[in-house]
Amino acid sequence: MIDNYDSFTYNLYQYLTISGANIVVARNDKISISEIEALRPKNIVISPGPGHPSTDSGISRNVIKHFAGKVPILGVCMGMQSMFDVYGGHVSHAGEIIHGKTSAVKHDGRGLFKGVAQDIESTRYHSLAPELTSFPPELALTASTKHSGVVMGIRHRRFTVEGVQYHPESILSEGGRKLLENFLLLKGGLWTENPEFGVGDEKAPKVEADKSVNGVGASPHSKSQSKLPTILDKIKQQRLLDIEESINTPGKSHFNINESLELDLAPPQISFSDRVKQNPARPAVMAEIKRASPSKGLIAPNANAATQAKSYALAGASVISVLTEPKWFKGSLQDMRMARAAIDGMANRPAILRKDFILDIYQIDEARLYGADTILLIVAMLSKEKLVELFEYARSRSIEALVEVNNANEMELAIEIGSKVIGVNNRNLHDFNVDMSTTSRLADMVKDRDISLCALSGITGRKDVEAYLEQGVDAVLVGESLMRSSDPDEFIRELTNTPAKEEDYKGPLVKVCGISTITDALVAKDSGANFIGMIFAEGSKRKVTLQQARDISLAVKNSANASNTVFEGVHSSEYNDTWFDYQARVIESASRIRPLLVGVFQNATLEAILEAVHNVPLDIVQLHGNEPIEWTRMIPVPTIKVFHISGSDEAHQLLNLRQSGYHSMSLLDTAVPNSQLSGGAGKAFDWKITKQINTHRLNSIPLIVAGGLTPENVQEAVEVSKPWAVDVSSGVETQSKKDVVKIIRPRRRRKMAEKKDATRTLGVGELEWPRKIFHSSIGPLAIGLYVSKISMTHILRILTITLLVILVIDLFRLRSTTIGKGRFANAYESVVGTLMRESERQKLNSTIWYLLGAIISVASFKRDVAIASISILAFADTSASTVGRVFGRYTVRLPSPPFAEKKSLAGFLAAFAAGAFVSWLIWGWQVVDGGSIAEAGRHSLDTLSWNASGKLTLPSLMLAVGAISAFTESLDVHGLDDNLTLPVLSGLLITLLLK
């Protein structure tokens, strides 16, 4: 990209990068043709810029001449004017000066404008434009303003050289991102290499000049209308075209969709209206997956629908709304299918809403096949007849639609047709303006009716929903705020005012396997085993018969005074548990009643397994061989699927490990080579593999660890793998009998593992020890300067020089990163990276703000106050962040505003203590026997007699400075870095206090 010294260059850079481009930016006088050739560019962009292309575009014109016909070239604003100038055209005054305003633009629909809507609103910043009377024959006119006829686009007739006068990178330019994406799809230097863009000599429109120099007549490709269509009109028109195209695509016809539905290929449904009412926390949250919108442009273009859906579900969302409109919202039916797959198997999964512009019954059947529980019907887009048709058809498919309204007339119609769930959109779809009072005005219309009322659009936090709750609102839909949130879980909990789910590892349960006698079974039970495993596998020396298993079963149940129905009463779900978490909770609850009887099978027939389940009877089945995972759905009790670890080809070994809806638990065991038995050899695998399996919280699953566990190594196994349960067998045998001592020791040791784990919860990386030690070291250094003979003027000079050196180095680092070379940035971060937060790698190092705050303090306050404020920065900031991170979860958070986000009472108290300590360091130890401060003339309290104050001054001062320290450390001053605000504010307040 050639930068013509214009700020818009980096807007172009941003949008092209978001679309996948890897860009090198060079100023128009800082690079040569040979240097550009060495980069071997696939595309070239000539940026906007001030001035005239013939005098102010630098190398831009030569770049166009040299690379035309070799690679695609895009010119924007002066970039386009440079193209016009290169081929002999004249650029002069446009006849109107437009800066920062929009105009309707019509175009020919080809080249870069392929797929871009007509009469788009486009942002203009220019006073020059090409003269139509001098239009070069090599070029074609592609776009002009609708009303004034000013040239807005040109294209070379043979080469992939095209430019636009307006700014597609502006957020107000409709279709701008589509145009830029089209440019990145071009290949080669000729239009003949890109036939899909519809450009050719015989097709290009001829240019005929109007009477005015820069005016043009009506475009033959523009359908002029007396009234500009609204965004809603454009979306509706496009969706009708999309529906027609989809219906006519082989394999996607309405007949094909219906045939798939008749084969019961659609995932199971839940009741949307019931799910909205079910959530105990109010309001129910309808969490939206939205990559973009017409009003905000790109929001989260790289969002993964499945990841978002699972995150929302685990945070407690009642409904997951998936945008499936591709053009303006960048969604798809595939997004909805992936979102549904991500939450399938959850004990209390959210309902899936297809949020789209539903205009045809085809879309309803399509939604059902792809996993939707409900659809959105927008009253503003539909006639009454069409609304009734779609609403009733949805109900015929067991879909209760969410009916969206925006005014009283639409609300009356929604009530009239019998809607059970009505959403009030706070955004007017005709102009996309948001009015948060819309829901409030319409709430009275559904009072005392069996209708769930939902507030849609514009929800940014708990404060937005509290008024709605008083008016009876049952649910809120949140899209953009959630997509932009760094912590969606916390955001949803804030909306519903619910606490975070407790994550407390209590240590593993114990399964004792290979039980073959009643005596061993009762010993295991009395020792506290949660599971008793009986092996039915052929070839095992511990194999039991059905009769032996029945006898053991009866003895255990009689001894525990418990029946077969241990799973009853443990199926309620307080949270949206994942499949495996729910199964683990149910099984663990049942195991508290009595040990659960597990039948272990290896490559047995399904009939043999079912016979044992019914005749013993068994509580759980363990599949230890190569049984198809689909069998787990045919076995009427929970199942444990064993995965064998051999140390190689782990991906193949762990196939289906996380497959929801099949097995209840996953057990890892050591593979035994050259044996007819898959496990039971008493050998351990590398327990660290469990950390590789559970690397992501959204994919974390409870695991059972088996293989070679003994009383000597089980503690280490628990510490390393953090298993849900351990499976012990040969390692706790003494002459084929179960040794009670060896069985119970793992259960006692699990608490030791828990305690050790608690001390390692926060590691060096999370607490940022190197950075904190560095920051804290400034405190003792400042105290040393305080008691030294060095003048404050000299200290100020040293600090200023240091600041300038670090600032220059850091600015060079950031520029090195920006222009794509990054070697200096990498070297810089490798040296001082541990002293930086991760968030600082794309902005100024906080040390700069640290030094600036110190300079202001030294220049503004007396010696003791300056050193006190710097010491508070060193000690209070470090203490507050460290203590807050470790203990903040156990104390309340400070209100935001006025305090910064996520500041806790624990951190506040730590800063208080640090401030009190600093005040003692600065003033307390300097008081001599006579009751005055040593070395008068260097302090703010020279004339104070400490003895005359009743010796209460020091403790009072410590309390006051502690309060100042805590307050300034926690305060949010318009988002400024606290390394700057903390010393300045604390110094100012201490000065006022001392006066």
UniProtKB/TrEMBL annotation:
<dbReference type="GO" id="GO:0005829">
    <property type="term" value="C:cytosol"/>
</dbReference>
<feature type="transmembrane region" description="Helical">
    <location>
        <begin position="844"/>
        <end position="861"/>
    </location>
</feature>
<dbReference type="InterPro" id="IPR006221">
    <property type="entry name" value="TrpG/PapA_dom"/>
</dbReference>
<feature type="domain" description="N-(5'phosphoribosyl) anthranilate isomerase (PRAI)">
    <location>
        <begin position="546"/>
        <end position="744"/>
    </location>
</feature>
<feature type="transmembrane region" description="Helical">
    <location>
        <begin position="867"/>
        <end position="887"/>
    </location>
</feature>
<feature type="transmembrane region" description="Helical">
    <location>
        <begin position="908"/>
        <end position="928"/>
    </location>
</feature>
<keyword id="KW-0812">Transmembrane</keyword>
<dbReference type="InterPro" id="IPR013785">
    <property type="entry name" value="Aldolase_TIM"/>
</dbReference>
<dbReference type="InterPro" id="IPR001240">
    <property type="entry name" value="PRAI_dom"/>
</dbReference>
<dbReference type="Pfam" id="PF00218">
    <property type="entry name" value="IGPS"/>
</dbReference>
<dbReference type="GO" id="GO:0000162">
    <property type="term" value="P:L-tryptophan biosynthetic process"/>
</dbReference>
<keyword id="KW-1133">Transmembrane helix</keyword>
<dbReference type="GO" id="GO:0004425">
    <property type="term" value="F:indole-3-glycerol-phosphate synthase activity"/>
</dbReference>
<comment type="pathway">
    <text>Amino-acid biosynthesis; L-tryptophan biosynthesis; L-tryptophan from chorismate: step 1/5.</text>
</comment>
<keyword id="KW-0413">Isomerase</keyword>
<keyword id="KW-0472">Membrane</keyword>
<dbReference type="Pfam" id="PF00697">
    <property type="entry name" value="PRAI"/>
</dbReference>
<dbReference type="GO" id="GO:0004049">
    <property type="term" value="F:anthranilate synthase activity"/>
</dbReference>
<comment type="function">
    <text>Trifunctional enzyme bearing the Gln amidotransferase (GATase) domain of anthranilate synthase, indole-glycerolphosphate synthase, and phosphoribosylanthranilate isomerase activities.</text>
</comment>
<feature type="domain" description="Indole-3-glycerol phosphate synthase">
    <location>
        <begin position="232"/>
        <end position="495"/>
    </location>
</feature>
<dbReference type="GO" id="GO:0004640">
    <property type="term" value="F:phosphoribosylanthranilate isomerase activity"/>
</dbReference>
<dbReference type="InterPro" id="IPR011060">
    <property type="entry name" value="RibuloseP-bd_barrel"/>
</dbReference>
<keyword id="KW-0057">Aromatic amino acid biosynthesis</keyword>
<protein>
    <recommendedName>
        <fullName>Multifunctional tryptophan biosynthesis protein</fullName>
        <ecNumber>4.1.1.48</ecNumber>
        <ecNumber>4.1.3.27</ecNumber>
        <ecNumber>5.3.1.24</ecNumber>
    </recommendedName>
</protein>
<dbReference type="InterPro" id="IPR017926">
    <property type="entry name" value="GATASE"/>
</dbReference>
<dbReference type="Pfam" id="PF00117">
    <property type="entry name" value="GATase"/>
</dbReference>
<dbReference type="InterPro" id="IPR013798">
    <property type="entry name" value="Indole-3-glycerol_P_synth_dom"/>
</dbReference>
<feature type="domain" description="Glutamine amidotransferase">
    <location>
        <begin position="1"/>
        <end position="185"/>
    </location>
</feature>
<feature type="transmembrane region" description="Helical">
    <location>
        <begin position="795"/>
        <end position="814"/>
    </location>
</feature>
<keyword id="KW-0822">Tryptophan biosynthesis</keyword>
<keyword id="KW-0315">Glutamine amidotransferase</keyword>
<keyword id="KW-0028">Amino-acid biosynthesis</keyword>
<keyword id="KW-0456">Lyase</keyword>
<keyword id="KW-0511">Multifunctional enzyme</keyword>
<dbReference type="InterPro" id="IPR050472">
    <property type="entry name" value="Anth_synth/Amidotransfase"/>
</dbReference>
<comment type="pathway">
    <text>Amino-acid biosynthesis; L-tryptophan biosynthesis; L-tryptophan from chorismate: step 4/5.</text>
</comment>
<dbReference type="InterPro" id="IPR001468">
    <property type="entry name" value="Indole-3-GlycerolPSynthase_CS"/>
</dbReference>
<dbReference type="InterPro" id="IPR029062">
    <property type="entry name" value="Class_I_gatase-like"/>
</dbReference>
